[in-house]
Amino acid sequence: MALWSGRFEKDMDTIVKQYNASIGFDQRLYNYDINGSIAHVTMLAAQNIITPEERDIIINGLEQIRAGIANGDIVFTYEDEDIHMAIESRLIALVGDVGKKVHTGRARNDQSAVDVKQFLCFEIGEIMKALIELEDVILKKAQQYKEHITVGFTHIQHAQPITLGFMFMAYFQMFKRDIQRLADAYERINLCPLGTCALAGTTIPLDRHMTAAALGFAGPTENAMDTVSDRDYILEFLSTASISMMHLSRWAEEFTWWNSTEFSYIAIDDSFCTGSSMMPQKKNPDIAELLRGRCGRVYGDLMGMLTVMKGTPLTYNKDFQEDKEYLFDAVDTWKASVTIFAKMLEKTEFRMDKINAQLQSGFMNATDVAENLVMAGIPFREAHHITGRLVKLCETKGCKLEELEDADIQTVDSRITKATLGKISIKDCVENRKTFGGTAPCEVERQIKNGTDWINEFKNDWR
Asked: Does the annotation count 276 as an active-site position?
């Protein structure tokens, strides 16, 4: 019979035990569960609720169990129900009746929450390292390509010329926001639920500040009822993970374009590609495609958890057992995806010969023509219309804007000449965009410096 079975006359049906059990996945939390129990009994002894001798016996037993799990001597089955019951029942079997005191002043409601929060705080640190490494790679690539010009797209059509460094710094800003969101979420996650018990606290004189400090939390949670029913911290993490995975997916999508024969903008290292089982010539960007696909998986984790929570009244409900599989999957997927994308990006080079061949198509200097007409005193809407007609003329003649002669230009508008169109080479178009946040190499250099300063400061300040 289970440790909680005092008011029951019958044992659970076998199929119900299997359905009810979470040990198959929450055994992953065993270290955190043992850490929580050690902090808890240390506090109980300090509060004279158990003796120092009882504390030491319990802690020694818990450490033996930890070692047994780590080396594979302890194997769990559905009969164990969950990691909390699995460890407690083995503790009692190992040290006797004194082991029954380990659960004094707590419930599985707060015990489960403290395990998950410890796990999540640790994993946020690991994911943060991966995101910082990705940002370091982006900065390195931005510096390498800060003056290399490529095609900027809107609607998947040639729009304006930009530098590759500028594009890299756009993604830097996306992942910077991911880092900021994760750091912000950490502040709310890093509060200790232990000691809130089932939902209302306890009459036993616990020192919740002591256990919070022992486990590395910033402090205890404020309200017991909210604490045991709260899964906002998981939802917030899953939301942050989903946004970040979306950023990875967008870039992975571009990788699949750029890798195609039609683009041929990049050379992805062989170690991040696969071949075809049938077509020997193929070099497929499967890792980029997997990254793109796994974004949907993390979205599913978020939507699953939102759906679990939407109908749960205060306080604890067994539905909450579903939180861990969503969380574990998102943690593993996000961490691996960031890590592998950073490595793939570092080993990807841009094929400037292919890119340069594309820079002359699509009239990407048309906006510059319109802006030069504005600087000559023509209202923007007129300048826009005139430039559109010049583009149409070029399409008819089969030439570029910079190849038009005065006679051609004045058939569109007698006020303007070739000189009025200004310097509109692709290089000029890029170098003249010096406004704050623009694509000019000097402005990209400023963005790289600011990004480098920010990431270095964040590394020093984080936790």
From this structure: yes
Q: How confident is the model at residue 20 (pLDDT cuts 50, 70, 90)?
A: confident
Residues 285 and 175 in one domain: yes
CATH at residue 249: 1.20.200.10
- In the residue annotation, 361 being an active-site residue is answered as no
What pLDDT digit, counting tens, does each position of 379-436 carry? 999 999 999 999 999 999 999 999 999 999 999 999 999 999 999 999 999 999 999 9
Model pLDDT for residues 142-193, shown as the tens digit of each residue:
999 999 999 999 999 999 999 999 999 999 999 999 999 999 999 999 999 9
Contact 211, 39 (CB under 8 A): yes
Residues 155 and 87 in one domain: no
Number of domains the chain contains:
2
Domain boundary among 327, 358, 389: 358
CA distance 34 to 40: 10
Cβ-in-10-Å burial (0-12, 13-18, 19+) of 261 comes to exposed
Closest CA to 368 of 391, 351, 348, 350: 391
Q: Which residue in 155, 271, 277, 414 is the catalytic one? A: 155
Which residue out of 89, 158, 247, 276 is catalytically annotated? 276
The answer on 225 and 179 residing in a single domain is yes
pTM of the model: 0.94
